[in-house]
Every structure is written in structure tokens, then in C-alpha cells.
Amino acid sequence: MTSSVLPLSGWTVSLDLWGTLITHGDRKAAAAWRITEFGRVLDAYGHHPTPEKLSGIVGRTRQQAAHQQRTTGAQPDVEAQVGAVLDELGIDRGAPDLLKLLLAVHTHAVLRACPQPIPGASAALDAIKAAGGRLVLTSNTLATPPDVHRLLLTDLGLLDRFDDVLFSADLGVAKPHPEVFAAVAERAGMPLDRIVHVGDDPLTDVDGALGAGCRAVHYNPHREATAGPRVPDFADHAELPDVLVSSCSAAPAELIPRSASHD
What we know:
Elements: E1 12-15, H1 27-44, H2 51-72, H3 78-89, H4 98-108, H5 121-130, E2 134-139, H6 146-155, E3 164-167, H7 168-171, H8 178-188, E4 195-199, H9 202-212, E5 215-219, E6 233-234, H10 240-249, H11 258-261
Parallel strand pairs: 1-2, 1-4, 2-3, 4-5, 5-6
């Protein structure tokens, strides 16, 4: 007599978004649109930084925020990012509606990149659900707030596939901080060792999940060698459901995140 229990029943599958389920799209187009629109707004307020100067300041501010997020799990404040740009330009933040207008540009620029689902991602989500897994989207946000992410996911036909959606801007902390994965487990009503997180970033997704007590699966489309812990990986989303079933049915492995391996 065969068991009727679905292979992922009792498991929560947490998935990263950018670079794992959807592409980053044309980042150069998004960056160019952001600088052009920033320039138009500033020009209307009597400020005329060169596009080169503005691009350098905006790019540097974003890189600093992203680095802090990835290395410490701190969640960058979007208004603070735009405010830092104005401060470096020597422009008063208090001008009526200036910050509000720049925030609208900053938070919607990603849509100009036209991100798309990675081939096979939608079918993989459906297969995970059919296997009994509870699906959770666990995504860091940098400049793009949760409401814009939800609009994008709805347009891409992905939002309604998830049982829960967690954005770092809502949580106040970001991957790889263990509180993110603790929130996934708490909201699922499951222990951490019944959470398996899937993502493309060895630091925030793999090390972060393992360090919090979860399992991890690495999306590794180029089959690159990594210096981190040995975890299951996949290069094609058609492989993901079987990789998850195999990973969740295996005995727990002694996996140590790279951040702890040199202690």
C-alpha cells in the first residue's frame, strides 16, 4: 500500500525573488531613467547637477546601502537614501514636495528594467505546491518598497502562487539576518528545521538560511564552484521540485556557514 502523504507536506519552501525567480532586467535602463528623472525634478527646483555627478552620487549611495544590507542584515531606509543624495549635492531636503517627488522616481525606477520570470520558475512553483509544500516569498528590498514589488509580482502572475510574502522593508531587517528566517518559521507555525530556503546568493540566501537553522538550496545557474558549505544546488528550475524533495527527505547534514567556518 503506497503512502498518500505528499512529499513536501509539512515543509515550508522559502524563495528569494531577485535573481532566483525573476531577472534583474535591464539595470542600465533603470539607472538611466532614474538619473534623467532626478535631473528633471531638481531642475524644476533650480538645481542643475550634471548627469555625471548625479549618477556618481546616486550609484555610490545605492552601493553603500546594498553592501550594508548584505553584510549586516540592516534594512536601508529609502527616504534616507534619497536624503543622502540631496545632502551630498548640498540641496536642502525641506523644499516643499522635493523629497516626495524624488522618492516616487527612486522607488519606481526598477520597473523600467522590465524584469521577467526566469524560465521555468512559474512551473516550478506550481510543482512545489502540488507536492504539498507551503510557498513563501522572502525578499530583500533596497529602493523598491513592498507595494511596488506586489504590483510587479501581480503583473508577472506570481503573487497569488504564494501562501505568504515577506519583504525586508516590512520586517525591518534583511537577509542574511536570522530574524528574517525566524519570521518565516513563526508565520508558518513551523520549526526552523522545517524551512528550506532557495536563493542565488551564497551569503544572504545560503549562509543566512543555514546560520538561522534552516535548510538551504542554492540556485546556481552557471554551476559555479563555491567555497561555502555543501548544499544541494540546481541550474534549471525544472530541477528544483525534485531537488527539494530529495533535500527534505534526507537526514540533516552538518552544514556550517562560511561566516562561522573560520572561527
